[in-house]
Amino acid sequence: MDFQQPLLRKARWRPWEFAVWAVAFVLPLLMPSHALMINEIAIVALFAMSLDLILGYTGIVSLGHAAFFGFGAYTAALFAKLVMPDPTVGLVVAIVLCAVLGAIASVTILRGTDLTRLMVTLGTALLLLELANKLDWLTGGADGLQGVVMGPVLGLFEFDLYGRTAAWYSLSVVLLLFLLMRRLVQSPFGATLKAVRDNRLRAMAIGIPVVSRLAVIYTVAAAIAGAAGALLAQTTGFASLDVLAFDRSADVLLMLVIGGVGWLYGGIAGAIVFKLLQDTLSTVTPQYWMFWIGLILVLLVLVGRDRLLRPWTWFGARGSAKP
Q1: How far, in Å, are 51, 224, 255 from residue 249 at the CA level?
Q2: CA 314 → CA 266, 270, 297, 299, 321, distances in Å?
Q3: 252-257 contacts: CB < 8 A, separation 24 or more?
Q4: Closest CA to 48 of 292, 221, 280
């Protein structure tokens, strides 16, 4: 019981968390012209949180997380085009199939060093990218999968041109999966994941089944990344090779660098900052926006996230330093 008390305290919701989610659901109504941007931020935030499950909580670095994102996108799009246009059923199918793919791919991260995992995960994404390009009769190849028409959500809410239905649909799915991830990482299972992250050999010595823990969390992360990809395909009505590209995996890593790893809100914060910077800088300097994002990342690394976001801490630290 004493062991469970700290976990129970961490599992309690803080007032600011309720405020964050309330604001998120109100924004499409208050800012209807930015509903599509809100929808996109919600999707990439879910994608970032899925990567944080394996990076922040188990210490596994992946450069191929876009494999599950893209597989989910193509699964949802093909399901809507060939089987039925119901978005909720398509979402569930995409999640299940991505979980199966994640369970199979989890074998690749159980052994080897961090560099080995980086190359193997990257190779998995590149293989799926090439497969999607070659199967152009099914995926549309370089032209993308077009003609995807989605039915109303729950048979009631039609997707509108302004993107408000899409935003609320994505936010609802993100909230449900966030609750699942929050419960998972703040449970005894999540505590064992952190033990594996901190010292795998010590975790094995105290009896934690490291292999099964890694396989389970990798499968869950793949399923949630697939859900993010499915949401993108369903809300845009399109799936292309871009969803499997290396840029997707690199961008989501940058989001976690900005927002911080090891807490789910880091993925949300990183996604918001990254997408807003991308949208603003690409408008101001279309040719050099990546340079400015890179400069901000360099500042984060050199100065530190806490000091950069809270300059008074930096000045206070300097003032208290002994000469």
Answers
A1: 9, 14, 10
A2: 21, 22, 18, 14, 11
A3: 252/44, 252/47, 252/48, 252/51, 252/65, 252/66, 253/51, 253/55, 253/63, 254/293, 254/297, 255/44, 255/48, 256/48, 256/51, 256/52, 256/55, 256/56, 257/297, 257/300, 257/301
A4: 221
Q: Do 87 and 151 contact (CB within 8 A), yes or no? A: yes
Contact predicate 57/194, CB 8 Å: yes
Question: What pLDDT does 322 receive?
Answer: 37
> In residues, how long is the chain?
323
Residue 280's CB: how many other CB atoms inside 10 A? 12
Burial of 75 (0-12, 13-18, 19+ CB in 10 A): buried
pLDDT of 321 reads 37
Lowest mean pLDDT among 123-132, 156-165, 247-256: 156-165
**Predicted structure pTM score:** 0.85
Q: Domain coordinates of the chain in residue numbers?
A: 4-267
Counting Cβ atoms within 10 Å, is residue 282 exposed (0-12), middle (13-18) or buried (19+)? middle
* Mean pLDDT of all residues in 201-215: 83
Q: What's the whole-number mean pLDDT along residues 17-40?
A: 86
Q: Are 222 and 68 within 8 A, CB to CB?
A: yes
Of the candidates 75, 133, 79, 137, the one whose C-alpha atom is nearest the C-alpha of residue 100 is 75
- ∠ CA(179), CA(180), CA(184), 5° rounding? 115
Tokens in use for 145? 């999968």
- CA quadruple 228, 164, 146, 240: dihedral positive or negative? negative
Measured CA to CA, the distance from residue 313 to residue 298 in angstroms comes to 19
| Predicted local distance difference test score (pLDDT) of residue 260 | 79
Is pLDDT above 70 for 86? Answer: yes
Q: What is the reported pLDDT for 312?
A: 37
